[in-house]
Design brief:
- By secondary structure, the protein is α/β, with parallel strands linked by helices.
- It has 2 domains: about 5-90, Immunoglobulins (Immunoglobulin-like), CATH 2.60.40; about 105-400 and about 435-465, Glycosidases (TIM Barrel), CATH 3.20.20.
- It contains 15 helices and 25 strands.
- The strands form 6 sheets. An 8-stranded parallel barrel has the order 10-11-14-17-18-19-20-21, surrounded by 5 helices. Strands 3, 4, 7, 8 and 9 form a 5-stranded antiparallel sheet that branches. A 4-stranded antiparallel sheet has the order 1-2-6-5, with no helix packed on it.
- Strand 22 (about 470-475) and strand 23 (about 475-480) form a beta hairpin.
- Helix 9 (about 305-315) packs antiparallel against helix 10.
- It is globular, with a radius of gyration of 23 Å.
Length: about 500
C-alpha cells in the first residue's frame, strides 16, 4: 500500500553525508521543528507528511511545534527524559547477525528487563546469557521495551514505540544486549504492541487522526489502520527493530485487537515487509484461542496459543473460574498435544500474563509446575519458558505500574482491585498496589542453578524425533518420542522420564 511518500521512514534519520532528515505526519497542522532551541521550517511532501534535512547530529534534542505547543516526535528514537521530555536524534552501531534458526529449533525464554536482574537494565541481562544458551534456550524474548510513562511497568502501555525505554538503557543499551546475545549464539525476539497506545496517547494524536471510534480495545482507543500513515507508524517500527538493531523476530501483542478492514491486513503487510529486510526474521502473533488468521491469512511464522497452558493449569490446580471454565480434561489435553504443525504454536507452562494477571502474581506450586513444564518441553510445539522457570522461581511476578498522571494511577489501583472481587480463589486477599515500588521489587528474581530435569528435557529436544505418541489412562498421561517416554501423573503431581 506504500506510495512514494512512504518510501522514507518517519522520525529523525541521520544521513550518510551528514545532517539529519526529519519527517513527521501532521495532516491537520503546519508543524515546525525546534532543534536545540532553534526553529526550522518544514516542507510538505504529500499525504500530510512534513520534512526537512537539517544540519543536526546524533545526540541533538528536538521537538515539534504544533499550534503553539511543543510535542516530542511520535516516531522518536529516544526519549532520554521520558514521555514528557524532548526527543533525541540517534545513530545506530553496526548490526550484528543472530544464529540461523529453524522454527523447530526455537526454545524461547521470555523475560522482563526491569525484574530479570538487580540492575533492571539491558546490560543487567548480559551476564546470564551464556547460562541460558547452555541450558538449551535458543532465543530470548524481551517483554516490550518501548518508552512508557514512569520508570517501571510491564511495557504494554508504551507511548513512544520507536524509543527503547531510558530506564533500561535506551537505544545504546538495547544494541549492546542484542550484540551480546548474538555473541552467545542466542536469537533475540522483541514483544511489540500495535493494538493501542498507553496513557499519554494525546501526545501522538495531537499530530493527526491516529485513532478511530469504529473499533474499541480493552486497553484504549483503537488505532486507525485505514490511514496510510498509521500503517507506516506500525510497519516502519517493525522494520526498524530488524534493520537497525538486528532483532531476529517480533512477537505481536494481542493481534485480535488490531483492527483493519483494508484489502490487505496491516499485519500481513507488516510480515511481508519485515521478511524483505530479514528473510529469516520470525513474526509471531499472540492471538485468542482457536483464531488462526495469523497463520492461515497473514503468513506469520507462529502464534501463541494458551489452550495447552489452560488444560495443564486446571488439571493441576482445579481452578475453573473465568477463562479456565472450559478447560481441564484429559481429552482436551490430548487434543492440544496432537494439533497439526505444532512448531507453529508457542506453548507454555507459565508466561507473564498467566502469572502476572493473577491477583498476587503467584506462580504454580513447585510440584504442579514440574509436571506442567515437563509436558511443555517434551511436546513438539515451540516451548516458551517464563523467566525463572528453569529453577522453579518462587518469587511472584506482580502487576506493577508507575503512572505519572495521578488520575490514571488511581484508576489503575481501583481497576485492579475491582477485577478480582468476583474471584473466590482470591477472596480475602489484598491485591498489591500496582503503583507501589514494593510491588515491583517483590517481582525481582533470585536466580539459582537450573533443575536437572529441565536441562535434560531441553537436551532431548535437540535429539528426539519429531513424532509424538500420546496415551492417557485416567489422569495419567504418557508421551513417547522415539525410545524416550515421559509419564505425567496429574493426580499425584509426579513426572517421570524413561529411556
Amino acid at each position: 500500500m506504500a506510495t512514494e511518500v512512504w518510501q522514507r521512514p518517519l522520525g529523525a534519520v541521520p544521513l550518510e553525508g551528514g545532517g539529519v532528515a526529519f519527517r513527521v505526519w501532521a495532516p491537520e497542522a503546519e508543524p515546525t521543528l525546534v532543534l536545540e532551541g532553534r526553529e526550522h521550517a518544514l516542507a510538505p511532501s504529500g499525504d500530510g507528511v512534513w520534512e526537512a534535512e537539517v544540519a543536526a547530529k546524533p545526540g541533538d534534542a528536538y521537538r515539534y511545534r504544533l499550534d503553539g505547543t511543543l510535542w516530542p516526535d511520535p516516531c522518536s528514537r529516544f526519549q532520554p527524559e521520558g514521555v514528557r521530555g524532548p526527543s533525541q536524534v540517534v545513530a545506530y552501531p553496526s548490526v550484528s547477525t543472530g544464529p540461523p534458526l529453524r522454527l523447530e529449533e526455537l526454545v524461547v525464554y521470555e523475560l522482563h528487563v526491569g525484574t530479570f536482574s538487580s540492575e533492571g537494565t539491558f546490560d543487567g541481562v548480559v551476564p546470564r546469557l551464556r547460562e541460558l544458551r547452555e541450558l538449551g534456550v535458543t532465543a530470548i524474548e524481551l517483554m516490550p521495551v518501548a518508552t512508557f510513562p514512569g520508570e517501571r511497568g510491564w511495557g504494554y502501555d508504551g507511548v513512544y514505540v520507536y524509543a527503547p525505554h531510558p530506564a533500561y538503557g535506551g537505544p545504546a543499551g538495547l544494541s549492546r544486549l542484542v550484540a551480546a546475545a548474538h555473541g552467545e549464539g542466542l536469537a533475540v525476539i522483541l514483544d511489540v504492541v500495535y493494538n493501542h497506545i498507553g496513557p499519554g496517547a494525546d501526545a501522538i494524536s495531537a499530530f493527526g487522526p491516529y485513532f478511530t471510534d469504529r473499533h474499541a480495545t480493552f486497553w484504549g482507543d483503537a488505532l486507525d489502520y485505514a490511514q496510510p500513515a498509521v500503517r507506516e507508524w506500525a510497519i516502519g517500527n517493525a522494520e526498524m527493530w530488524i534493520r537497525d538493531y538486528g532483532i531476529d523476530g517480533l512477537r505481536l501483542d494481542a493481534v485480535h485487537a488490531v483492527y483493519d478492514d483494508s484489502p490487505t491486513h496491516v499485519l500481513k503487510e507488516l510480515r511481508d515487509r519485515v521478511k524483505r529486510i530479514g528473510a529469516d526474521a520470525f513474526v509471531i502473533s499472540e492471538m485468542g484461542p482457536d483464531d488462526f488468521r495469523p497463520l492461515e491469512e497473514w503468513g506469520h511464522d507462529a502464534m501463541w496459543l494458551d489452550n495447552l497452558h489452560h488444560e495443564l493449569h486446571v488439571l493441576l490446580t482445579g481452578e475453573r473460574e473465568g477463562y479456565y471454565a472450559d478447560f481441564g480434561t484429559m481429552d482436551g489435553l490430548v487434543h492440544e498435544l496432537t494439533r497439526e504443525h505444532p512448531e507453529q504454536l508457542v506453548v507454555c507452562a507459565q508466561n507473564h500474563d498467566q502469572v502476572g494477571n493473577r491477583a498476587v502474581g503467584d506462580r504454580l506450586p513447585p510440584d504442579a509446575h514440574r509436571v506442567a513444564l515437563a509436558v511443555v518441553l517434551f511436546s513438539t510445539a515451540t516451548p516458551l519458558l517464563f523467566m525463572g522457570e528453569e529453577y522453579d522461581e518462587s518469587r511472584p511476578f506482580q502487576f506493577f505500574t508507575d503512572h505519572i498522571d495521578p488520575l490514571i494511577a488511581d484508576a489503575t489501583r481501583e481497576g485492579r482491585r475491582r477485577e478480582f472481587e468476583k474471584f473466590a480463589a482470591f477472596a480475602g486477599e489484598d491485591v498489591p498496589d500496582p503503583q507501589a515500588l514494593s510491588t515491583f521489587e517483590r517481582s525481582k528474581h533470585e536466580p539459582r542453578e537450573p533443575d536437572l530435569l529441565y536441562r535434560e528435557l531441553l537436551r532431548l529436544r535437540r535429539e528426539l524425533p519429531r513424532e509424538l505418541h500420546v496415551e492417557t489412562r485416567g489422569r495419567r498421561l504418557t508421551l513417547t518420542r522415539g525410545r524416550t517416554t515421559l509419564v505425567a501423573d496429574f493426580e499425584h503431581r509426579i513426572v517421570e522420564l524413561h529411556g
